[in-house]
Specification:
Elements lengths: L1 E5 L18 E2 L2 H7 L5 E4 L3 E7 L6 E7 L4 H14 L10 E7 L2 E7 L6 H5 L8 H21 L4 E2 L8 E3 L5 E3 L6 E2 L6 E5 L10
Parallel strand pairs: 2-6
Antiparallel strand pairs: 1-12, 3-4, 4-5, 5-7, 6-7, 8-11, 9-10
Amino acid sequence: MSGVWTYRKIQESRSVQLSEDVAPRAFSYAELEQATSGFKALGRGAFGTVFKGILAEGQKVIAVKRLDKELVEGETEFQTEIKIIGRKHHRNLVRLIGYCLDGSRRLLVYEYMTNGSLAGILFTPEKQPMWEERCGFARDIARGLLYLHDECETQIIHCDIKPQNILMDDQFCAKISDFGMAKLLKKDQTRTYTGIRGTRGYILC
């Protein structure tokens, strides 16, 4: 099975390549080890473990994802995240702050999202949001998708939109995260075909 998406053409775009002018900061492994107090786990995803950390300068709180070096998918996610989201800045996308490339080690550094995932809110009985709040979350996600599909210079299909990949900041603003399965549309490309990917039960966006 495969899917097809069609979009209107947007203004001329530049290809995004992993090079010295990539916006995210390059961290050393030692920096991130210190920031996370020796990598104390916060949670685990499909391709790696997530840690909470604090950068020495400015006391900025961060989330660090250490990708499983045994998995080919981990390397793919690392490359995809940097190329796709490294230069993108939108209030409804989780910001990629930096990365670490140290031998076989691959780590991604993000802004820390205080209120966890949308899944943690929707599926926890005592946290059930009102319908007005749910509509607000939906609007946030829609704004993020509109930016990815139509407004940024290179159109992006996320391919794995689900509550677990929507994170909430301290103001409960919903932000799209986890671009490891995303697809970039080439310059002047208006449609793309892809095999089934993402999580069963959710529409690929």
